[in-house]
Fold this sequence. Notes:
By secondary structure, the chain is α/β, with parallel strands linked by helices. It folds into 2 domains: 3-151 and 319-341, 3-Layer(aba) Sandwich (D-Maltodextrin-Binding Protein, domain 2), CATH 3.40.190; 154-316 and 371-425, D-Maltodextrin-Binding Protein, domain 2 (3-Layer(aba) Sandwich). It is built from 18 helices and 11 strands. Strands 4, 5, 6, 7, 8, 10 and 11 form a 7-stranded mixed β-sheet that branches. Helix 2 runs antiparallel to helix 14 (343-353) and helix 8 crosses helix 10. The longest helix is centred in the N-terminal third of the chain and has 17 residues, at 3-19. One of its GO terms (cellular component) is cell envelope. Residues 1-23 form the signal peptide. Belongs to the bacterial solute-binding protein 1 family. It comes from Knoellia aerolata DSM 18566. Its main location: other.
Amino acid sequence: MTPRTLRSTLTLIAFTGVLAVGACAPSSDTDTSGSGGGDGKETTLTVWSWRVEDEAAYNKIFDAYEAKHEGVTVEFKPFKATEYNKILATGLAGSDGPDVPQVRSYGQVEPTIASKSLVPLDGKVDLSGWDENVVNSAKSKADGKLYSVPLARQTVQMFYNKSLFKKHGIDEAPTTWADFTAAGDKLLAGDVTPIAVGAKDDWTLPIVHEVLAAPRFGGAAFQKEVLSGQTSFTDPDFVASIDVFTQLAKYFPKNVTGVAVTDAQTLFSAEKAAMFPGGSFDMAVLKKANPGIDLGVFEVPAPTGSPEDKATTPGWADGNFAVNAKSPQREAALELVKWMSTKEFGQMVADEVKQISAVPGVTYNDPLLRQMADSYEKSPSPYLLLTDFRYGSPSGTDLMGKGVQQLLLGSKTAAQVAADIDAGVKTWFKPTP
Length: 433
């Protein structure tokens, strides 16, 4: 048993009882100055996260940090994702929170910032040269200050089974909309579900919308216009982008609104469906379910009538790290978070966590991860309803998810769904001319 494994085991034993009340003991150290490293004092920093599946990877990453920071121990404590927000809020409100919490991004981190739980990082962490869309995920809309360091960039694209494509006479990924629909027709004729969509889970439908139709509403160009008030979600191009679901519905599983995302993933992994529209975060899940699958990814070509006939890769930042304002070791916690903005950390995220790092200049050994990262670099597009329309309620993603369900059930048209999104976000969103 390695020292870290032993520490993790002892920590888990001590921590089990506290989990029941939704919080855990903070760092208990002989050093409260936060200095650590080379002065004979010991500092233990706790890092909380909702990524249980990444525990081994983070332990390896923090081993590397400890090796260069004498006297510092980093304890990674993951929680169940569905319970994390409540556990974190409880911990940050009291004295039992982590030194370094993993926090949400964009609109979802605003309540945490508003509670004064996080240390502003302006002048302490340098993110110059980073993707603006990524940096915005870590800033507050209220005061414009930086409150966290982005961990990863998530991208959305179409996963496909290369072997199934070839089996049905499709030699390569489609590069035009006509090629894309022709591939769907060939797969249907071969008794294969062309596109595995799980519309029972409404949260995934805005992602599917971005994969299938970001070019149809204009991507980044539309983002600028809608944020400035030059257009709205009732714009004909945005309505047409929602109508893409209607055009492609025949390629989805039967009774698609009763199909869960996990069912769609299983359908694809079992090689009964040829394509799966999803995020870069889905890659590990798909590979684990079927290690032998001949997996590929591509950008869905721009639908007919798109403002620009160019495919895009939508993306956003996800899973930022911050400093707890109540940490008794703020300086040591800040040093760790600063390190998380370095290329060394970013490279380990790519290699160990298998995510597209938020840090610029990272290289990718996994060919699919490299392809997704390269595609985003060449033709980026924001996951609009997440990056800009989750700062109030109802959120853009909630409205789109429920609206597309109604569209697929036949109870609403694309124009009605778009009108509902527009009316819903206007209850809290104010354009900035």
